[in-house]
Amino acid sequence: VLAVSRRRRTVKGPVTLGIDVGGTKMLGLALDTSGAVLGEVRVPTPSPSAIRGLEGDRNALLEAMAEVVSRLAGPLRSSSGLSYLPVGVGVPGLVDDAGVLRFAPNLPFGQGLDIASLLSERLGGWPVVVDNDATCATVGEWAYGAAARVSDAVMVTLGTGIGGGIVSEGRVLRGANGFAGEIGHMVVDPSGPVCPCGRRGCWERYASGSGLGRLAREAAHAGHLAAVVRLAGGDPEAVRGEHVTQAASAGDADARAVLVELGWWLALGLANLANILDTAAFVVGGGLVEAVRLVLDPVNVAFGEMMEGRHQRPEVRILLASLGETAGAIGAALVAAEYGRRKAGT
Ligand SMILES: [Zn+2]
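# zinc ion complex -> structure
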C-alpha cells in the first residue's frame, strides 16, 4: 500500500515526478524508490480556445505541465539539494519512442506535439519521458497494485474509451514504435457504431462508459429502464453510464441486466486478448470499475466460455485495479525512473 503524504518525510533514493494528463485534469505525483508518494498536485487540463488558437493551446498545455513540475519539485529540491528531477508524462494517444504524441483523438490540439523535447526545454533541460497514459497505469499497477505479483498481465482501463497496457514475460510490451496496447480499437463488429478513431465497431464502443451509456439509451428508448431514466431526469436521451451503475447498485434488476450485457462485451474482448497473449491476469481499472464489480460473476462465466481450451489450461484471473486514479501518475514516475536507470547503464 502506498503512503500518500504531503508532509516532509525521509526520502528513499532518487525522486522522480509523474504526470497523468487526462481530458479535464492533470494529476502530478512525486515518488521515491520505495514507492512512497511525497507530493501531489492537480491542475485543470487547458481546453482548446478559439481566441488562443492552436499554437496558444499547445503552449497552454506545456505550461500546465511545467506548472505541475515546479509545484511538485519546489519543496523537494530545496530539501534534497538536487538540481533536477526526472519527469515522466502519460498522455492519451499514440506516443512514439521519442516522446512525440503522434495520434490523439482525445487530446486533438496536442497531436503531433514533441512533448518530451518541448517540456524538457521549458524546464531548463530536465529529462522528460513521455508514454501512453494507459501504459503508465499498467506500469503503476504492475509495480505496486493489483498485478504486482504476476509476470504476464494486461491492464484494461475502462473510461470514456478503453485504454490498455501489456506486460508479457516480465516486461512492458511497447512494440516497434511504442504504440502497443491499443486494445480498445480491436474491432468486434465491423458494422457497429462509429469510433473517434475513424473506424466502426471498436471494442471501446461497447465495453466502456460511453458504450454503457449507448446500450442503456437504446434500452430506455425501447421503453425499459424506468428507474435509470428517472435518475437521468426523465429523459431517455440523457441517460449516462453512471445512472445505470447507480440504479444497479441500488438493486434495480433492469439496470443490472444492462451491466451484464456490458460485461458480455468486456468478456469477449478479454477472451480475444487471452487467446492471443496467454496472459495470467487482467487488471480492470478506470471509471467503470464499480460497474464491473457488480457483474464480475457473469463476466467470469462469459469469459470462461469464450476461452480456447478452457478446461485444459490454468484459469486466467480478472482482477480489479487497486491504485485508483493515481495509477497513471505513479506509472509515469516509474517510467521516468526506468529511463534514468537505462541512461545510467544500470
Ligand atoms: Zn476505434
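# post-check
Residues 1-9 have pLDDT under 50 and may be disordered.
Residues 244 and 255 are 5 Å apart (CA to CA).
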